[in-house]
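Hey, I'm writing a tutorial for new members on how sequence and structure tokens pair up, and I'd like a real worked example in the thread rather than a made-up one. If someone can provide the structure for the chain below, I'll link this post from the tutorial.
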Amino acid sequence: MSRSTSVSVSVKRRVFKAAAAGAVAGMALLFAGCSASTADIRVYLSDDLQAAYGEVPALEADVAGVTEVQQRQLASISAADYFRPGNALRRSLAPVTLHFGLQQQGPYLISGDDKAWELWESRGASFIAVLCNLPDLTERTSEQGAAPAGADPRILLINMDDGYLKDSSEHLVLISSGGVLKIKEPPEASAALQQADGQ
């Protein structure tokens, strides 16, 4: 091999190594950005529940990351069916269950580093579902014309905007007499957030 050929090969090797190192560094930054992504979910109880029901009812609210298939299943059933004892869909979602009542009015926080996210991401979830067993809500809202046909206002399905389950944002959810709502600002004078226990 001539000297010029040897030098050329050596230069090509250095260029290749530099390019490979740059690619590895770029991937490291990409994954670092993904791991730093957070999607805190904060769930509040509305003050209007006491006026609507005469007291603060004992409630359960389920929060889970769901796939498109599971999202369609949830959109086709009522919250009453979902919370019925032994419901297979509820069991399969492995949700984080939040408990509300007179002595526990929240609010709750499911932080972006909660272990529940690992399960939801592993199943390929792209929606966040929040469901609450508010009593008799569907009948009352249907009579008032407040609930869209075929929809149960006690079931909220949040589509992650960028196609990833964790979309580097914060989701605020309000359980009210009108159903489960996604809100832009936290309710005024809300109590300190309680960390929810992931499954």
